[in-house]
Amino acid sequence: MLRITPFKLVILLLFVGMLLPPSATARPPTIKKSVWGPAAINGQSLFPTYRTLGAGLYSTALRWDQVAQTRPGVATNHEDPAYQWPRYLEEAVAGAESNGMEVQIMILGTPHWANGQQAWQWMPKDPQDFADFATAASRHFPNVNFWMIWGEPNRAPNFQPFTPANSGTGYLNEEQRKAPENYALLLDYSYQALKNIDQENMIIGGNTYTSAGNNDINPYQWIRYLQLPDGSKPRLDYWGHNPFTFRFPELNSLMQKPAPRGVVPFSDLRRLVRVLDRYYPQRPKLFLAEWGVPHGFTDSALDFSLNAKEARRWISSAYRIARRWDRIYTLGWIHPVDSESSSMGLLNSSGAKKSTFKAFKRS
């Protein structure tokens, strides 16, 4: 019988490692790092790059109003001729999966026929119509198990009808409550529909934006008033939040003064979790789908930019916290490629690596 000594075993493993392609021996992607960005640049797939960066989850969006411009005959049937599934999305899902990444799809947008001829941001007249589309989407993308219900619905430009709070963390009046109550119906109906298709489907709800501007309801208020007609909370698996920040990312103590007017940047996530746990005793983890650090020129959305050294420090700190704090399920990077308006890219607009690329990869 052949006897393999420990020394020979080490040599054998090293030899096998030399024969394998680099992708097979590289550190596997982690779900703690996700990315929300284009599937390709200059005709070249970006998924090998995303894998190299260590991202284990790819996020993208699916617009109901674009897929179903006419009412389907059988709305839960993904093969109904009314549905025009976007080819680019099918290719993106396939590209992510072939590179060992999970996929998260955000469903949003209401067709004219479902909301009384209103704009896409308007709540459908019957939330079951939205849930039926979610059913069809899950059947069309059977390998996708992460489903986000709408994006940043606590902002008036994204969700209607909507009456902004224009206040700090206080009470909402009857008109202001309509938006979170309507969204609660969409979320709960979708939760049931997606679980009926596959119990492994995971639903991301809430999906709040960082700040409480003049057109917003702040995240703390959104959590409080997100309720169904019977007063219960809509079901979800993860709480979605986009914690954009204007200061070094760290976790403040609850004893420290919070950001003003209900703003919830990265550093106030402990406070967000404390409020969330008051209404959701099951303590859902945070699905931080969108985050990023501007570097190179002033980002038009965030209105600031960091130098290279500071940008790398911010990235390292944020992802170190995401790895170590079990309340964070994933921390996603948005705009991984620079554009005219965004400097949050890890690649510049031509596809070349920025100095932040290596920081993200190592984080």
Chain-wise SSE layout:
Blueprint: H1 6-19, H2 22-25, E1 30-36, E2 40-41, E3 44-45, H3 47-52, E4 55-63, H4 64-67, H5 87-98, E5 102-108, H6 127-140, E6 146-149, H7 174-197, E7 202-209, H8 219-225, E8 238-242, H9 269-279, E9 285-291, H10 308-324, E10 328-334, H11 355-362
Parallel strand pairs: 1-4, 1-10, 4-5, 5-6, 6-7, 7-8, 8-9, 9-10
Antiparallel strand pairs: 2-3
Task: Name the descriptors.
363 residues; alpha/beta; TIM Barrel; eight-stranded parallel barrel; 11 helices; 33% helix
Short description:
This protein is of the alpha/beta class. The protein has eleven helices and ten strands.
Written account of the structure:
By secondary structure, the protein is of the alpha/beta class. The chain has a single domain, classed as Glycosidases (TIM Barrel, Alpha-Beta Barrel). 33% of the residues lie in helices and 16% in strands. The protein has helices at 6-19, 22-25, 47-52, 64-67, 87-98, 127-140, 174-197, 219-225, 269-279, 308-324, 355-362; strands spanning 30-36, 40-41, 44-45, 55-63, 102-108, 146-149, 202-209, 238-242, 285-291, 328-334. An eight-stranded parallel barrel has the order 1-4-5-6-7-8-9-10, surrounded by four helices. A two-stranded antiparallel ribbon has the order 2-3. Helix 10 links the parallel strand 9 (285-291) and strand 10 (328-334). Helix 6 packs parallel to helix 7. The chain is globular and about 55 Å long. The model is unreliable at 6-25 (pLDDT under 50).
